[in-house]
Amino acid sequence: MTTEEATRTLNTIREDIEMLKEAVELGNDSDKRAAIGRVAAWAPKLVEAAVAT
Q1: What span, in angstroms and rounded, lies between the C-alpha atoms of 50 and 7?
Q2: In whole angstroms, what is the distance from residue 11 CA to residue 20 CA?
């Protein structure tokens, strides 16, 4: 993974985490579940991006 790809990946993860925070604040259970799934799916890419940066 290049530094540019890592930066894009980290930005996408950041956006997904923001969506999760908003879902929690609004108390929307279906949005929370969807956001948690997206954030959890990023775990392997997060490690790869951290190593690349």
Answers
A1: 9
A2: 14
Cβ pair 36, 17 in contact under 8 A:
no
Bigger pLDDT: 21 or 53? 21
Burial class (CB in 10 A: 0-12, 13-18, 19+), 35: buried
Residue 16: which of 30, 1, 33, 36 has the closest Cα?
A: 36
Q: What is the pLDDT of residues 10-52, one digit of tens each?
A: 898 888 888 888 888 888 788 888 888 888 888 887 788 778 7
The C-alpha R_g of the chain, in whole angstroms, comes to 12
